[in-house]
Design goal:
Structural class: alpha+beta
Radius of gyration: 27 Å
Distance between the termini: 46 Å
Shape: elongated
Strand order of the largest sheet: 1-5-6-11-10-9-7-8
Number of strands: 16
Helix content: 25-40%
Number of helices: 16
Length: 442
Amino acid sequence: MTDTPSLDPYKGVRDFYPEDQFVQRYLYAVMRESVESFGYEEYDASLLEPAELYEAKSSEEIVNEQTYTFTDRGERRVTLRPEMTPTVARMVAKRRKELALPIRWFTIANLFRYERPQKGRLREHVQLNADMFGLSGREADAEIVELAASILLNAGATMDDFVIYISSRGLLGDLFELYGVDTATRPALTRLLDKKNKMDENDFRDKTAELLGERTNDFLATVSSAEATIKMLGDDHQALRELTELVSDLHARGIDNVRILPTLVRGFDYYTDMVFEVYDTDPENNRSMFGGGRYDNLLATFGTEPTPAVGFGMGDVTLYEFLASRDLIPAYRSNADLALCRVDAAVAKDCNALANRLRTRHGIHVRVDLTDRKVGDQITGADKSGIPFVICVGPNEIKSGQYTVKQLSTGTEKTVAEDEILNALEELAVTDEESPEWTSEV
C-alpha cells in the first residue's frame, strides 16, 4: 500500500491559488506595460536547454551547484533553464543575419535553480528579462537602467524607495592590474566580491587575504567607495569617467538615485563592461533585488560575429516583497465584474441569455450563480469571491427589462435598462474611492 501523496508542492516552488495568481498577473502587467512602452517586443523559449549551453556561458556556481540537469531518454544532457540570457543570445545568434539591429526583446519566464529556499529566493521563480542587441555605448546602457527603474516607479514606488548601484568590469580589471592580481586569481576574487554583501565582514576579509596576501588592506581600502577609487585612479581614468558620464545621463532622464559602487561585479562570467544592481532602501530589506549589465562577447561564443548587448533580469519574488512592504499590491478582486443571482429557477434560460449578451456585446465578465441557494446566500457568495457587482434576476426584471446593479462594497444601487448596465458599473466604481477603477481587464 502506497503512502498518501503530500498536499504540499515541491520544496522551493509555489502553488498559485486565484488570489495569488491575481497578484502575479498584476506584477506581469506592470512589467509588460513598462517594457512595451519603451518599444520592446516579447519572445519566449522552452524550459529545456542542452546542458552545454550553461556549462560554457554561465557562472561556475550556477553550473556546479544550482542547475537541474538530467539525462533524457535519448541520452542527451538537459537542463531546466536557470537564466534567460544564454537562451536569448542563442536565439539572436541563430538568426543574426536576418534580424534588423538594434533589437529590443523581453520575456517573462520561469527559471529554476537548486538553492536553499529563503526570503526572496526560491528554486523556481518568474523573471522578466529585457535585452537590447546591436547598440554599444552610454545611451543604450542608460536606457536599460532607466527601463529597470521605470518598472518600480510604474508600480507606485518613489526614487527614495530604491538605489541603483553601477560599476564596470573594465574598472575592476584596471584595479586588478593596479594591484598585480594575476589572471589565475581574478575569477576567484571576482566571485568573492560578488558575494561580499552576503558574507560576514571578517570572513570576507580573511578569504580576500587568502587571494591577495599583504595587498588586501590597500585593495579593500581602494574599492571601499567611489571616492576612494577615484582618489587612487584619478578623475581622468577612462572607466571611471564613463561611469560618471552614465550617472550624468541618468540624472538627465530623471533617475537621480544612481551611485557608483566599485565592488559591484555581478556573478555571471559573460559580463564585459557596465553592470548595475537595484537595492531596496528599506532597512528591513536592504538587499539587492535585481540587476544586469553589458555582455558584448556572448553572441560570438556561438560562432557569429560579435554583437554588443546589454540587459537585465527582474524576479517576481523580490518585486513582490518590495511592493508588499510598501502596501503597493492591489487588493484581490475576481476576474468576474458582475454576478447574476437568480431569484427564480424559472428564469434560468433568460438569465443565461442576458449574461451572454453582456459578455459579447459589452465585454463584461459575468458569472451566473447556478446554485439553488437563497438570493441572500448568492449575494454573500459573490461578495466572498471578490465580485464587485451583482444583479438579481427574476421574472419582474425579465419582463420590464430594468435591472438593479448593486455595488457590494458600498451597497449603492442603480436601476437601468440592459444597454445601460456597462455605464452603471463604471459610474458606481468611480463613486467608491476604495474600489479600483472598473475595468473588464485585470
